[in-house]
Structures are given as structure tokens and as C-alpha cells.
Amino acid sequence: MIDENLLKILACPACKADVELKDNKIICTKCKKKYPIKDGIPIMLVEEAEDDEK
Question: pTM score, two decimals?
């Protein structure tokens, strides 16, 4: 699980918007990119992100 204080300071590297935790992924509130969490560490690299299918 990601610490709430860490989540508050993270921002999307693609668009700099706030992020939220959902389904064990870090999701951008603006561009909707989904960043994986591996071994409890958020991988905040644009190359690793999944784009929203919608």
C-alpha cells in the first residue's frame, strides 16, 4: 500500500496533475494515465504508464 503522505506529493510526470490510488495503480486525475506499483514502489515513468482506453 502507498503511504497517503507520499500520494499527496506525487504528480503525473506527463501533465503534472494530481494523482490518486485506484486498483493498485496510480492514476492521473487529468490525463488518466495509469502508473504501475511494483513491490510497493510507484513506477512514475511515462514509458511505463498505460493510457486510458476511454
Answer: 0.88
